[in-house]
Amino acid sequence: MNILILGGGGREHALAWAVIQNPKCDKLIVSPGNAGIAKIADCATMDIEDSAVVIEFAQAEAIDFVIIGPEAPLAAGVSDDLRSAGFLVFGPSRAASQLEASKAFTKEICDAANAPTAGYGHFTDAQAAKDYIRTNGAPIVVKADGLAAGKGVVVAMDEAEALEAVDYMFGGAFGDAGAEVVIEEFMDGEEASFFVLCDGENVLPIGTAQDHKRVGEGDTGPNTGGMGAYSPAPVLTDAIADRALNEIVKPCMAEMVKRGTPYQGVLYAGLMIKDGVPRLVEYNVRFGDPECQVLMMRLGGQALDLLQAAAEERLADTKVNWADDHALTVVMAANGYPGSYAKGSVINGLDGCADDSFNVVFHAGTTKNDGAITATGGRVLNVTARGATLAEAHKRAYDMVDAIDWPDGFYRKDIGWRAL
Ligand code: AMP
Ligand code: GLY
Fold this sequence. Notes:
Elements: E1 2-7, H1 10-19, E2 27-32, E3 42-43, H2 51-60, E4 65-68, H3 71-75, H4 78-84, E5 88-90, H5 98-101, H6 103-113, E6 120-123, H7 126-136, E7 140-144, E8 153-156, H8 159-170, E9 181-185, E10 190-200, E11 203-211, E12 214-216, E13 220-223, E14 228-231, H9 238-258, E15 263-274, E16 277-284, H10 291-299, H11 302-311, E17 326-334, E18 346-347, E19 359-363, E20 366-369, E21 372-375, E22 379-387, H12 390-403, E23 409-411
Parallel strand pairs: 1-2, 1-4, 2-3, 4-5
Antiparallel strand pairs: 6-9, 7-8, 7-9, 10-11, 10-15, 11-14, 12-13, 14-17, 15-16, 17-22, 17-23, 18-21, 19-22, 20-21
Helix pairs in contact: 1-10, 2-4, 6-9, 7-8
């Protein structure tokens, strides 16, 4: 099978790492890829949000299966166009991707499916939004409706902050993404991520994870894309995961079928758990990054069979081969991230890191320059390990971190603290 993966972050390195372990994989190309991916697959540069470009490339390379990593090509309809051109694709349609691309849409689906989530209102004018905030009081959460690269959410602890967020969003800070604003009840509890594969009709859970969104130790400082993650998430017990599956995910997927827009791909449900009860915070229509890294570390080569079964609508008779193991990833980021940071610093010591089925350094923002690996992004490396216990995975990951010599980067020393 010839496979094309779209994307070039740590998530796609992890997907590529899992896919090539499966004997079914004859050829793998990743676009755009990165320096780590280039060691295990061919990389190609193209505009992955332009369907015509991707289709032409996939035809020329005799690709059998396209796996779409990030949300942007999904929201642009690349999966629909590839399917129309006859390709087998892993990733939801443009219409189904609304579950991430529009928060108001997701709320509407939850209402119709009777899925537990925060109470809300949605607004297209500032005055009505402010009235709603004054009526409901703080804490309260203000969200830009559309895709805002993870920055469109303000968890306001007082009313003034919430009112200011409304002005900021309607003021055009997020462009079209902020033309509509969702205001939500603040939910207290512990967050965890629940990952399922969907084939339109059927839903198959493939793992749980927790990440560390804040840049600083002790979960302090500004939000990031994620400074580390681990799987499984102890807070998502089997009983709570069952509730999330039966009360939230399955009814929402059934609602998507009812609307004629069945969901196919991975669905990442962000949950808030309080007193054993899960409520939905948000859906993402892709794997989390860095959550994918810990999931792939645990699934290994079977990941390709699972993704293919989702794309071929065969999940009803597909099973996950679970190992009773744990994985943890530590993100190494460029000094300054999530603010501004310099590009081009050299990373040494990677050759001193173990590289096997228990230890992998997944690359995110890296490139190769004159033989040296250099940093090109904010989040740069995902140092990932697996073990019989979370403590074992933790030790292995930090042993690798210690071997890496990158004075221009930093990492959190407390990934997994809550679970350890
Ligand atoms: P979102 O982009 O919707 O996932 O929001 C980003 C983050 O904001 C979430 O991961 C939560 O930590 C927080 N958040 C979002 N909605 C709520 C809510 N209704 N109550 C409490 N925290 C929230
Ligand atoms: N790590 C969070 C995300 O991928 O959205």
